[in-house]
Amino acid sequence: MKQWMKIGLLSCATVASSQASATNFSVDGRIDAMGGAGTAAADYLTGVFYNPALVAIYSRKDDAGLLLPSAGLQIMDQGGMVDDVDQVQKGFSKIPTDPVGGASDIENGLRNLNGDALSFSMGAGMAVAIPNRYLSMAFYGKTSVEGITLPDVYTGTTNPIEMADRTAVGTVALGLAEAGVAFAGYTNFLGQNITIGVTPKIQSYLTYTYVEAVNNFDFKDFNKNKTTDNAFNVDVGAVWFYGPWRFAAAGKNLIKNEIETAKVNVKFKDSVNGGFYDPNGKDYQYNYELTPTYTAGVAFMTNYFILTADMDLNEQERFVGLDDNVQMFRAGAEVDLLYQIQLRGGYKKDLAGTYDDAFTAGIGFSPLNMFHFDLAAIYSIDSTYGVSLNMAYEY
Question: How far apart (Å, rounded) are the C-alpha atoms in residues 53 and 198?
Answer without folding.
Answer: 7
